[in-house]
Amino acid sequence: MSLSVFKIVAYISTFSISVPLLIYLARITNLPRQFHLLGLSVVMSAAFDILNLVYFRSHKSNYFLPNLYYILLFALLAGFFYEILFRWQFKKVFQFGNYCFCVVVIVSCFLQDIDLQYQSWVWTISGLILVVFCYLYHSFVQVDSARVVLNQHLDGELAIVAGIFLYFAFSSVIFFSTVNYIMTSLVPDASRLLWSIHNANNVIKNIFFAFGIYYSGKRKITITKQEYDLIVARENKNLKGNPFVN
Q: What percent of the residues of the chain are helix, what percent strand, and what percent coil, each to the nearest 5?
């Protein structure tokens, strides 16, 4: 694969964030809180892409930028999952996940210099935690609860969660955990190839984000009162005795 192809993939990855960003800005007044948290992550991603380009052009070290980016990204996406899931279920899992993330960040700051290398531990653990959150959300929407059935934003949320899962399931296992080795020890062609795969994965994530933001609030709901009462009764019965609800 030629160097020009790697550059094209990198540019597409960088500019792909503009698609969900423009859709978010166009719909900003019609979105609920969870999509504003996601929108902030999109705005932040665009801002960090610009900063990375500035540092790259000026030949300055930019290790701290992606390190800071993934810390902030986890915080915003964790907030997104809290709004769509953890406000009602699995609160203990949410607290444990955030506790693990904070511990990893603190330990990593001592063992991996934020200015001299990529904090691969933070990237990997935060990604795996978000993958678990995606799985829990998928389990949550499989149940015909009132919150799921009456959620006009469900289609948008499903697209966002799918994008998060695809991005972090691949990147955390294959890319984030070995990023320092890829950048320092791997032969250049292999390193560029892995970066290109990661960039392609990033494009896919941004496409899912764009669809999710666009379809938020557009789901049509048709349900009778009798069906609603049945769903609520079944939901209350299923929640009893679940240790992860609170």
A: 80, 0, 20
* pLDDT tens-digit readout, 113-122: 666 677 778 8
Is residue 24 within 8 A of residue 210, CB to CB? The reply is no
191 touches 183 (CB < 8 A): yes
First to last CA, the chain: 52
Tokens of 82: 């809290």
Residue 246 three-state SS: coil
Residue with tokens 């059935």: 149
Alpha-carbon distance values, 178 to 4, 16, 78, 154, 202 (Å): 24, 25, 24, 35, 17
CB 222 within 8 A of CB 203: no
**Banded pLDDT at 67 (limits 50, 70, 90):** confident
167: tokens are 């991005």
